[in-house]
Every structure is written in C-alpha cells, then in structure tokens.
C-alpha cells in the first residue's frame, strides 16, 4: 500500500503544507488567538463595571450605619467599581428623592436606587430601581452585605451570641473531590474542565482546518487538470492515501506543537498554576490523544477529500461539505453539553459511536475517569470506521476526480458507486 | 515487432459510446499517430491506455504483458489539458514528477538541468510555475514527461497551443527520441504534422477505428485506386463501367477512382482498346488529409443514408 509513489506524494504534500504561510500562521496564531480571547474578555469585564453609583436608601438609621461599615470593607468598593451612597430617610421623603433622581437614573448618572424599608426585617423584600434592573453583576455583589445586615439586625433583638450570628450569615463553601481508582482522593479544581474544553476546541478547529485544506487541494488538482498527469503515474488509491497521510502527519505535528505547552505545564513545576486550575495528564494520555487525533484525521480528511473530488468549483464544494461538517459539529456540541454534566448519557453513547467518538472521548477522559474498556471500544470503533468508509470514499474519489463538466447531484454520486473503475 | 497493442477496448459514458471495440498496434521504434476529429474518442482511448479510465472491455498490452502500474512508470504522458502545481518551482516540479515514476537522485537533477537548458529555461529553474508564460509552462510539462527516460511517450494533442518555434523544438526532440528507439504515440487532428512525422497511423471516428496501419502502405493503397489521366478522345463509355467508382473532370485532366487496385491495369487496357490517346496516366500520391476526409467523410455519408 505504501510504495515509492505514495512516499513521493506524501513528501510533496508535507513540503507544500508545512512550509505554507497558512500553516505557520495558524500554528502560531491559534494559541495566541485563544489566549487573546481570554484577555479580551477580561479587558471587557474590567470596563463594564466602571464606577457605578448606587444609591442605597434605608428607612432605619441603624441599618444604614451597619451597611456602611460592611460595604466599606468590601473589595468592590475598595477597587471603586461600585460607589455606594448610603442614606436613611422615611418613606415619604424617599418618594420625593426618587422623583428628583429619576432624571439621573434615566441618564445613567446613577446606576440604580435600592430602597430598604423597615418591613424588610420581616420579609426581606427590598426594592431596586434602575434603567437596567437585570444587571446581575451589580446586584450579586450588593445583596450579600444587605442580607448580612438584615440577618444581623433580626437576630440581635433575640440575644444570640455574635459567633452564632457569624455562622448563620456565612455562605456555603463547597470543595470538590475527584475519586479515582487506585489513587488518593484529590481536591479537584477546574483544571480538567479547562483541559477538556481546550482539547475539544483544538480537535474541532484542527479537523475542520486540515479537512478543508485537503478539500481545496483536491479541487485545485481537479480544476487545474493536474490530476490527469498524476493518474498517469499513480493510481487514484495511491493519490488518495498520499494526500490523506500527508495531511494527517501535518495535523498530528501541529497538534503536538499545540499540546507541548500543556505537557510542559503538567509534567514540570516551572509554571505554577493557580491551585484550582491544576490538571493531570500523563504521556500515555498524550500518546492516546495524538493517536486518536490521527484516526480522526484519516476519517474526516478522507471524507473532505471525497467531497472535494465531487466538485470542480470551490463554491459548490462549500455547499456540498455540510454533511461532513455535521459529523464534526454535532459531537462538538455534545462535548459542550458534557461540560455541564460529565455523565450525560448522550455523551456516554457518543464517546463510543462512529465519527463522534473521535471528538467526544478525549474531552470525556479529561473530565471523568473512563474505564479502559471504553477507551478500547472507542478506538476500535474509530479504526473500523476508517476501514468502512474507505472503499466507498475511494470509489467516489476515483470517479469524481476525472469527472468534469456540470455539478453532479447526490443521486448521480450514488450511481458512481456502481461504475466499473 | 509489435510493442504496444490495444485490443478491442470499449468505453461508454451513460448512453454515449465513446470508444467502440478499438484495436491497433504500435511497432517498436515508430511514431504512431492517432487521428480523429474533436470528440472522435482519441483522448478516451489514450486515457484507457494509461489506466486513467478503466475500459468497459478489452485490454492493452505492452511487450506482451498486460499494462498496469509498471507500464505507467515506463510511459511519459502528456495529457491534452495540461496542468502543473502553480505554486511549485520549476525544478521542484520536474523532480516531483520524476519521483512518482520512481526516478530520483543526482542524475535526475543533472538531466533536468540539461533539459531546461535545451528548452531555454535554465534561468527559470527556481521560479514558481505561475510566473511562467503559457508556452514556457508547456515546455516544463513536456520536460516532465521525458525526465524519467520513458520507453514510451504518449502525447495527447501535442502541438495544441504551441507557437511555430516551440513546435519545431518539440518536433526535433521527438525525432531525436525516435532515433533512440523510443515508441511515440501522439494524437492530433492536424494532418500535416501527422503526415510529416508518423510511420503508422490509426484514424478514429465516432469511437471506431476506421483505418489502421503503416502510413506508407495506407497511402499506397489509397493512391493506387486514384488515377490522374490526360488524354485525347471520348471516354464517356467509362461512365457505366462497373469497375469505376468516381470520375471527376478537372478540364485538363480527369480524376478517376477505381473500385479495386487490379482495375487500374484493366482501365489502362480499356483506354487503349478504345483508341484513347493516353498522354499521362499517373497513380497519384494522395495526401493524408484526403485519406482522412475520404475515410471519415464517406462513413458520415453512409450514416446519413442509413438513417
């Protein structure tokens, strides 16, 4: 199957791909881009809470005073993202004040007005007036101190010791522990989740990128008529194998570059990650990831090459590749849903289902402990998928690359399978 | 000695019979012309010889062995629709095409540079293909069909799109290759090239081989039935003679086509018996173009009659 012709083809593909500007740019820029997104997000977040003035009006002077004490200590006041102005006034005076402030609210000079009536001590109901009352960020920060003051006030009258009060107003702190076989129980942070997210994103991008690169190159060979020269020297099977292996090697190489920092971070102590971002990854797992990715490339690049062989015009091909896109995108969305609940049954099935297994299994492994048999089944399914699609894909490719003229319909493509070639 | 043999190959695309039971053979050391109009089935025949299309039936043999990948690596093939990787460099392109034929190393590089010099492209060795003119791209493609030192050259519409100077360079190279004992098969619809270069021809029309053999023999055959006559007297008695196919009066001379070769001597005898003063009786040298038109045209006429 691999002879000097295939090797020559692979060499050409590698030279063309590895040295292409697109490949170098993508390999360097994708990580930059990903960190860039986090950076931009942080940047935007820092913008959004730019000094919101909030008027907090209480009916009772004691609440007002206590609230001032607590809020002044809060971090959001110290870094001045929220500037609270706390007053006390009676209901009637508040109505006047509200009327006067309406203009400021509408022009957003004041982000909001919170009114805490005395009745709040019985039913904890307070009022919030704002142009954008659904701004959870602001309320989330401010409702905790208010709750504490109200609870404090309520119980103070009942002669309960301060320590008990403090306990009552404390919020729950959940520490998550991951239980694995044969290992000590470890406190788990978000590392697995982040890694899983990262892996599925890289897989998704890389499969799509390599796939469409090969598709373009097949279309180019077909429309430039190079394919006829090639076919006078190599068989269509050799040509297809050469193209797919060329792309698969390129892809795995790129993935290895991307994963290198992850491996370095996981296996050395050069970089200290915040404790809740620590993740575990072994070399064996990395090897599995690359092998799994390699199989994925064989499958999807093969499908993309087949689609490319059907069309002569890149635009027609864009519309023709949606079935293959779906095979990548649906598992990607399943993976995303798995982030919420790693034991999602759909994800469980998908992790061992043809096509989906490629994308779902690695993400699943990063989040939960997958039994070995499932990994083996998933890998076998992938290998079988390769063997199942290639006779069909190869035949379509064989007929397609020499078929010029009008754009064929799907029915015609199915007829090609019966051609003698 | 037959080197390359095409035996009863057929190919249909849907309802269209592109090639119908075509057979011909190419002797060793000869230049073979596959002649036909556009759409006659030349390219399909050649693609089947190269295993680019699988024939519906029939086979191709090279030196008695069924043609396969091994045969392909002994062939230099120039398709009608030329194509190169636009982003690749000239020398890189040549070496790649040689490598997929199984030839690489210093010798190939040296040979590639020699060819580039011969075709006046030495200074463009490291240019990208897309920066070359169309004529130069054709030259690069032609070199790529020669570089692996093939035993057989199959050239589809070799001269299409070439200027007279390049046409001449190609012609000389092809004749040189013939001297070296290579087998050269090319297809064309330009009869004057074929007439000058080919030893053997096959004429294909509507997918069928109409005529096939050595050009000299075919010419002899066709010209033997063609007579140009100058005379004095009345030859109207010939009009209903069964051995005459056509008579065309050109004023000074008459063109007579007899039905069979042996009729020529009978015709001469008949003329003398009828006291016609024969001034010139010449078995004409017929041009390939006439043969082609007669072959393809008469069949077309027959088709019309049958309809």
CATH topology of the largest domain in chain B: Rossmann fold
Q: Count the helices of chain A. How many?
A: 18
Number of domains of chain A: 2
Order of helices and strands of chain A: HHEHHEHEHEHHEEHHHHHHHHHH
Query: Per the principal axes of the C-alpha atoms, what is the gross shape of chain A?
Result: elongated
Alpha-carbon distance between the termini of chain B?
Answer: 41 Å
Give a brief rundown of this model.
Chain A is α/β, with parallel strands linked by helices and 421 residues long.
Sequence-ordered SSE layout with sheet pairings:
The complex is a heterodimer of chains A (421) and B (307).
Chain A: H1 4-18, H2 21-48, E1 52-58, H3 61-73, H4 75-78, E2 82-88, H5 91-106, E3 112-116, H6 120-123, E4 127-129, H7 136-156, H8 162-169, E5 177-178, E6 186-187, H9 191-223, H10 226-231, H11 236-267, H12 283-310, H13 314-320, H14 322-340, H15 345-350, H16 356-367, H17 372-401, H18 410-416
Helix pairs in contact in A: 1-11, 3-7, 9-11, 9-12, 9-14, 9-16, 11-12, 12-17, 14-16
Chain B: E1 2-13, E2 16-27, E3 31-35, H1 42-49, E4 57-62, E5 65-66, H2 69-73, E6 75-78, H3 90-99, H4 106-118, H5 134-146, E7 152-156, H6 164-179, E8 183-188, H7 191-197, E9 200-205, E10 208-214, H8 215-224, E11 226-232, E12 244-249, E13 254-258, H9 263-273, E14 277-283, H10 288-306
Description:
The complex is a heterodimer of chains A (421) and B (307). Chain A is α/β, with parallel strands linked by helices and 421 residues long. Helix content of chain A is 69%, strand content 6%. Chain A has 2 domains: 122 residues, D-Maltodextrin-Binding Protein, domain 2; 228 residues, no CATH class. The model of chain A has no long low-confidence stretch (mean pLDDT 82). Chain B is α/β, with parallel strands linked by helices and 307 residues long. Chain B has 3 domains: 137 residues, P-loop containing nucleotide triphosphate hydrolases (Rossmann fold), CATH 3.40.50.300; 59 residues; 82 residues, 2-Layer Sandwich (Alpha-Beta Plaits), CATH 3.30.70. In chain B, helix 3 packs across helix 4 and helix 3 runs parallel beside helix 5. The chains are: A alpha/beta (421), B alpha/beta (307). The interface between A and B is medium-sized, with 23 and 31 residues.
